[in-house]
Protein 1
Amino acid sequence: MAEPNPNLTVVLHACLGVGHLIPMVELAKLILGRGLSVIIAVPTPPASTADFFASSASAVAALAAANPEVSFHHLPAPDYPVPDPDPFLQMLDALRLTVPALAAFLRSLPSSAAALVLDLFCVDALDAAESAGVPAYFYYTSCAGDLAAFLHLPHYFAATDGGASFKDMGKAPLRFPGVPPIPASDMPHTVLDREDRTCAERIRHYARVPEARGMLINTYEWLEARAVRALRDGVCVPGRATPPVYPIGPLIVKGQEAAEKEARHACLAWLDAQPARSVVFLCFGSLGAVSAAQLKETARGLEGSGHRFLWVVRSPPEDPSKFFLARSEPDLDALLPEGFLDRTRDRGMVVTMWAPQVEVLRHAATGAFVTHCGWNSVLEAASAGVPMLCWPLYAEQRLNKVFVVDEMKAGVVMEGYDEEVVTAEEVEKKVRLVMESEEGEKLRERLALAKEKAAEALADANATSEDPPSLLASNALSLATASLCLRIFPSSESITSLTLASTSSALTNSSYPSKSTAIFISSTMNTLFIPCSA
């Protein structure tokens, strides 16, 4: 790893969601590896919203302990004496109220920040960047398809002013640039009611995204070629300039690399004893949990399928709208059908609360993944070559389900995800489909290619050179798919001529010279220079 330069600092600003924090930490590690300093500026929740942020605050502490090379700066908590009763609006309000503290932090740095990279929920932090004179970029931690749809929503709502809300349209298909038709009911709950304040806030946020200098997305181009192309072509934001788009993924946790057998989770030792591609893995992310009735239906479906399984079970939330609250250890004997654990002991393993998902997905015994379709989980499965059984729960996961199944051809749907329960019959049917049928074999072939392309994207991202100027001069810098190269090199205050040599897939810069500094990010179709303050 290159020694970080304290005079060249990139500040990352994340919201307090585990699915957002983890990819932000992975981006920080990548930036550190290219010789820049990096600080993750984390909001401190107001005292009045402590319940909402409880699990996320502990996640920040765990991530900081696990990644000592990454610097975390905790911004002071803002005053928020009367929080909105809606938990989602609490989060947005808290992030907005944190903007002055973020601006003050940026101004307090010994040398000006090279760039501020924002989570998409932190849109109001554009104001902090402007007040501190720091160029701002967005890092979207979910998929390009989501971003294409979201950026089009301000135009869609303006063009359909007075029209029906998505919540009243059932499964009517929505047609947005760069993505397959989306059933209206699969849009995130935050935009279902166009008369609601939550929806108005999200539309305001999406309308501001094009103000940034660029958008980094945790994806790789092969996986989402159509959505990436639509974003680059500007068709998602009609009538406005779209900032450059940079697929920089798949940025995922590498997983545990401990050599000692004792350091491995017990479920990995269990997997070691199973045949190749024979185990169905069920896990619903860091926050996902289902009802007690659903746990019993799932158990019956797994038992009926006859297939091996590894299942992560959490206690059902007392209030489904408060899935983010910490929960107690589940009582498996009370939650699962009587005798289930004994009857399936020879072919199944149930673990509580947590399993090392990356290692499980990469294990040779894992043959399918029942997932809530959180984007980190989708990327981890695609990178491991594991077909998905899509069971979305909340946030943008229903959208991700559409793209995984209809666009990426990487999974099947657990029907009933939008009803009270997914039946045992459906669980058994879809497990058998993926594990036994010709359709399942085609999925495995598709995912094997997805795994190969993910490895290529990572290899391109890790390709480095100590002398970018000479590479530019010799046209030797390849524009490989979904690569990310962060470089520090002298630059004039304005790059006067940068051209893409399309026939040679290389870059040339006819005005290279001397004073300040820039960050150089290469991706499939773009090159980005981020001017830094002197």
Protein 2
Amino acid sequence: MGWREQLTIEERELISRELSKNRSARFIAKALGRHHSTISREIEHNGGGQVFRAVEAQARCEALRARPKERKLVASAALHDAVNAGMAEKWSPKQISERLEKDFPDDESMHVSHETIYECLYLQARGELRTKLALALRKGRTRRVNRSRTTVAADLSRHTQAELDTLRRPNS
């Protein structure tokens, strides 16, 4: 599921007014310049056309958007210390994650995915912490390389011309 831009309170108020005039979701969507399914979903999630209220819908949206759950590495000092110890040893987040599972097989509170470690490192790194991050990580990068954006061309650039000719040759 892709990212969707949130409806504003003004858009929700227009939805509420138009619903009181018995206008359809498609009509409201055209007026707002939104897809009709966005409007239908908003109406459905907030009680339907007869009971939709903009202020209540906005409050519900804000409550759902809030992150009440504390991040795992912040919540557990022991886990935080174990990850820091692994980083001090120049282990990768993947190695740290695997080591924690091996050292604490029955303690779920000491398990963390490598993605959680990366997220904590890269999203929270500011100023001097970013410099320390570069020193702690083996590659020295202070930004993540998005692996999903690597292309076939980038993969092919690692091969010599002779290898590329062999790869492109038709099978006979």
Protein 3
Amino acid sequence: MYQIENNQVFYTKPLELRLRLKTAHVQHFQPLKDRTISAELTRTITQYGCWHRLNNLMAKDDRTVWFGNQPVPGADPESFVYYHGGECAWGQDKNQLYCFFDKGRHNIKTIKSKNPASFGFFDFPETIGYLRMYAFDEHHVYHLGQRVRKAHPNAFRPLTKKIYSLDRQLITHSYPSSAYYTSENNLYYHGKPIEGADGYTAHLVSLEKAGQAKYLIAYDQHHFYYEGVPVHPRFQAMFDLIPPPIIAHQNSLAQKAA
């Protein structure tokens, strides 16, 4: 939280010391707000105790952009725009992109971009307005500030998760995943590519029993995957849980590709 007292600027992080921003230009100092978040969503975030992370993380004056009590190196105050992102915050100015983390010590990541003005967030159906783990520019996709290898913004999509009831032995419903994504022939788990996986034939199923999720299994024509790692047939205990229709579908994918 930022405060101005006696012509000085202070920053206080919850449960920590009050720190003075010695070089802050008080006459031009202003906390930054995410203008893309509606008033209704702001109230929702406040109810869950996240207000200090929403609109009290960043500020600027006429010379400096601030993240907490730290100057952001190279940031242009005049063109800088702040976006709240849940696990991280994002920033954009005329020169580059930024990702900020508020866990432990303040961590600032600079992202070089050929076209910073093209920065934006995906409008996926499962996306909550302030949980922005993924972002993009004209050429690249980013996950928590890291470039997602070989992912193109126009092709990047969440894999649809089908909910399979082990009690009823059928698929009950489906919705987009927040863990697995595809971009053309690539498959990703939390922003990291799964080597050798085939995004074109990838499917995702959540195995549930008594209404509780047991395992989230992805599969393509080559393998089954658990937490982004191939599951080999020798792990029989895992395969015993996979319903025969799912195994049959995976086999049919392999046969079509042969």
Protein 4
Amino acid sequence: MPRGGEGRLRWPAPISRRRCSARPSSAPPASARAAIDRRALPLPHAGRPVRVDHVVPDALGGPSILSNAQVLCTDCHDRKTQNDRMRIDKALRLSDAHHGIRDPHARPIAVGQPLPPGKPARRATAPLTKPLPPRRSLCVSEPR
């Protein structure tokens, strides 16, 4: 990873939009405290660390206001974040496709070009090398 000034890591521009959707929280700590105080019911995992999360993520158009905040335990927050990142990545892919942006690392698709000539197809079974045994005749036995 390239290093920026003062020993901090920085992402290259093409990768940052695709792979790293994390960014510093825009909500001040007072809003986080207000979200924790606002919840009426105790958490199912009482005594465990909690995180304040957006109900609708910023990247999907969610506002940074108190009514869009929820308090989750770390396990639930991690599961929700994983689901949110999949939705964000899909939205970015659809947006890129709509605007004609292509991934430079994608394999080009051959459109309208004939396939190169190849070896002739092989048979599924090898041809018979010895003759088959004689077939049974269909004789109807006479009653005795």
